[in-house]
Design goal:
Helix content is about 50%, strand content about 5%. It has helices spanning about 30-50, 55-75, 95-110, 125-145, 155-175, and strands at about 15-20, 25, 120, 185. Strand 1 (about 15-20) and strand 2 form a beta hairpin. The chain has one domain: Hypothetical Protein Ta1238, Chain: A, CATH 1.20.1200. It is mostly helical. It contains five helices and four strands, in the order E-E-H-H-H-E-H-H-E. It is elongated.
Length: about 190
Amino acid sequence: MVKLNKIYTRTGDDGTTGLVDGSRTAKHSARIAAIGMVDETNSAIGFAISGIDDEAHRAMLTRVQNDLFDLGADLATPSEDGDFTPSEMVLRIVPSQPDWIETQIDALNERLEPLTSFVLPGGSEAAARVHVARAATRASERAMTELTGETSVNPAALAYINRLSDLLFVLGRVLNDDGKADVKWVPGANR
């Protein structure tokens, strides 16, 4: 259980921040950039939730928000030997988490007609908010894959963030009257 009595610690005043293993890293490092982008994604999802009326969709995204905290903890726990086994003291994304997202995508996608064009991010306000969260998720994925150039990243975490953007895309379509109110891309329309 996390207990935060004091919000400021002053330990980061030198431009570093602490990781789960007790080590410190620069606040501008690739690891912290990835953690920060995951936080931005989580915030964008919170914003999306505030515009969704359907309780099942809200609950699904709230579960995702909890998973994103797990993902942040995973990224904040270096593994120099590539061992991403969770334990009582080490929180990791596990394969069942991206698998759950795939199940959600499949269930939502059953309601939709196949795409005949790319769709523009928008339509209803709720769908537009979800598309903002989707774009933030893609930025998180880019930051996480950039981190893989420096160190090992949990493969399940990479799968999770990749599946999440797909889930948000499909949910955006559902929130656009099951795709009927999608705004279609018209290639070259303004030439």
